[in-house]
Amino acid sequence: MANDGDVSEKRPEGKCCGIIQEATTKSMERRSKRKESAQPWIVLKITIGITLGIISYASYVYIGRFCVPMLKRNSGILGGRRFGIPFLVIFCILLVMMLWAYAVIVFTSPGKAGDYVEPSPEPPPRPVPQWWDSTSDIGAGQYEYTGSNTVGGAQSNGNTTLESHAVPSDKPSEQRDDNAGDADALPPVQAAHARSEMNGDGNGAQQPSGDTSGLPMGLTRRPPMTPVLHPDHRYCFKDGFIKPPRAHHCRACGTCVLKYDHHCPWIGQCVGARNHKFFVNFLQWAAIFCMWTFATLVPGAVQEGRDSDLDAQYIVIIALSALFIFFTVALLVTHVRLILLNMITVESLSKERMTEREKAVLARQFSWYQFGAKRKLKKQWDREWGEPYTDGNLWWLGSYRENWESVMGHSKWEWFLPIGRSDTDGLNWLPNPRFDSEGRPRPRSQWPAALR
Ligand SMILES: [Zn+2]
Ligand SMILES: [Zn+2]
């Protein structure tokens, strides 16, 4: 484990912005200490009780105060027995399905890296990236195309590349633990500013051969060059071991989780390699359950309001189900997309940062109405590096279907029921062959010939 001494020893000295850097380091140390310990078990799990409480209350209102009175009325209209029976039966089926999926997600561990990985010594201190140095403000050369020599030579010469792209992870990392391309953290505006400076003096970026001829200087894509598969980069200073690829440290659980997506308080644990599928199954059934409740209770309440006084508890359940429809559908859409892309949240955020940065650069270079020119340039970048979410994605398996099945299973039953399991053990992953052995993207010219 890292301690104060270690961290301060590694602090680089003598730079122009040393004071700021020191303050930043101290603040990160303080933050990392505060969040070092996992949350107590009861705090992690109490939300499961709250969730079950909400479900129980909804069931009481729907069955006891909505369906049962309907069953007592021998009427064919809404509010009578003819509607009451199917409402009750369908509600009970959906309730059972949702509780089944909930039980499976609550009791299925995402997989903890510590159960499989032996402790190992800390890697040597990482060089401080140039953007920490005020002198590199202009030279946000960080933003430029780094030339194929860097990318290709990276395997035997990791340090050279780390020099210009490393994350400042020579300390127990915080957000930067997300090793998914943080190295490209140069603010877009600063990057665009730097870009125009470079254009002005004309001795800025190297251009990739051929492709960008005739374009303004520097208008090249620079995908994140973080060596995400390099063991040094995967070291967890809190747990003291090298994490398997895609594992990240969860502060709430206080441990490294395999294919860590996020910590979900509603299930009292993380969503990761071994329960991502069940999380989606739970969201599916929870969304359907909430939709059914909402869609039947609203007309029921209207009818009830006409015949007699409206039960206020209907309103509570209608509001709750509307809230959870929004919540579960949004999460479901997000996770279906992530699974189709074979990404986890941090990996997707890294891509989004790259896209945002490119947008800023394009907005700087072109007028707002030059849509065609912007699109053409983006297409050219995609030809050069591969489309960011498919060929340019480290975990792209070749098609949306393959990505989906690798997580959700190969039978359609598994897609909708909380049964089966994902293909992966969460420890071994098949990287996209378009990337180098340390997980850095390569331009198309360096891809295996069959893939170009
Ligand atoms: Zn860890
Ligand atoms: Zn967690």
From TrEMBL:
Fetch the Pfam families from UniProt: DHHC
Transmembrane segment boundaries? 41-63, 83-107, 282-302, 314-333
Indicate whether Membrane appears among the record's keywords. Answer: yes
Q: Where in the cell is it found?
A: Membrane
Alphabetical list of InterPro entries matching this protein: Palmitoyltrfase_DHHC, PFA4/ZDH16/20/ERF2-like
**What region holds the Palmitoyltransferase DHHC domain?**
232-351
EC main group: transferase
- PROSITE patterns associated with the record: DHHC
Topology versus the membrane, per the UniProt entry? Multi-pass membrane protein
Q: Which GO terms describe its biological process?
A: protein targeting to membrane
User: Which branch of life, at top level?
Assistant: Eukaryota
Which controlled-vocabulary keywords does the entry list?
A: Acyltransferase, Lipoprotein, Membrane, Palmitate, Transferase, Transmembrane, Transmembrane helix
The region called Disordered is annotated at: 143-223, 432-452
Q: Name one GO molecular function term.
A: protein-cysteine S-palmitoyltransferase activity
Q: Name one GO cellular component term.
A: membrane
Catalyses which reaction?
L-cysteinyl-[protein] + hexadecanoyl-CoA = S-hexadecanoyl-L-cysteinyl-[protein] + CoA
Q: Which family does it belong to?
A: Belongs to the DHHC palmitoyltransferase family. PFA5 subfamily.
> Any notes on this protein's domains?
The DHHC domain is required for palmitoyltransferase activity.
Name by which UniProt lists this protein: Palmitoyltransferase
